[in-house]
TrEMBL record:
Chain ranges of the C1q domain: 14-150
Main location per the UniProt record: secreted
Keywords, comma-separated and alphabetical: Secreted, Signal
Annotated compartments: Secreted
Superkingdom as given in the UniProt entry: Eukaryota
PROSITE patterns: C1Q (PS50871)
Upper classification of the organism: Eukaryota, Metazoa, Chordata, Craniata, Vertebrata
Protein name: C1q domain-containing protein
GO cellular component, one term: extracellular region
InterPro entries xrefs: C1q_dom, Cerebellin_Synaptic_Org, Tumour_necrosis_fac-like_dom
Length: 150
C-alpha cells in the first residue's frame, strides 16, 4: 500500500471514531432545582445538544464508551435550593472526580479530566444525598469527547 493510500484509508477510518456528547440537566428554561434527596441519585441530563456516535443515553444519563481511547469528560453544576451542590463523575461504580460548592445559591463550579476508557466503560454523574443542583436548560451540563482511539 502506498503512503497516500494509507493516509486516505486512515482518514476514512477516522469517521468511525467520532464520539462527542453534551447535555444539560433540564429541557425547560424555567429556573429548576433538583433535590435534595435522601439517597445518592444518578442525574439524567435530558437536554441533549450533541450526541455524535449516540454513546450518551438521555433516558438513563449514562455515557457508554463505544471504543477504547482517551476521552475528555467535563461536568458543571450550579447550586440548587439546598445551598450546596456535591456531584461526582462515576465510572463503572467508582467516583473519579467531583464538584463541591457551598457558595451562594445558583453559583456554579466545573471540573473535567482526560480519562482512558475501555470499550463499554460507563460514566454517569451522581448527586450526593442532601444536596441539590440547579438548571435552566444550559447551566448544569455533562459533556465529553474522544480525543483519540487506542
Amino acid at each position: 500500500m502506498t503512503r497516500v493510500e494509507k493516509l486516505e484509508r486512515e482518514r476514512e477510518d477516522r469517521g468511525s471514531y467520532q464520539v462527542a456528547f453534551s447535555a444539560s440537566l433540564m429541557t425547560t428554561t424555567d429556573w429548576t432545582s433538583v433535590g435534595p434527596f435522601n439517597t445518592v441519585t444518578t442525574l439524567v441530563f435530558r437536554n441533549v445538544m450533541t450526541n455524535i456516535g449516540n454513546a450518551y443515553n438521555p433516558i438513563t444519563g449514562i455515557f457508554t464508551a463505544p471504543l477504547k481511547g482517551l476521552y475528555y469528560i467535563r461536568m458543571t453544576g450550579s447550586v440548587g435550593n439546598s445551598g450546596s451542590v456535591d456531584i461526582s463523575l462515576t465510572k463503572n461504580g467508582w467516583s473519579m472526580f467531583g464538584i463541591y460548592n457551598t457558595n451562594e445559591k445558583y453559583s456554579s463550579s466545573s471540573n473535567g479530566m482526560t480519562m482512558v476508557l475501555e470499550a463499554s466503560d460507563q460514566l454517569w454523574v451522581t448527586l450526593w444525598s442532601g444536596n441539590s443542583i440547579f438548571d435552566q436548560s444550559q447551566l448544569s451540563t455533562f459533556s465529553g469527547f474522544l480525543i483519540f482511539p487506542m
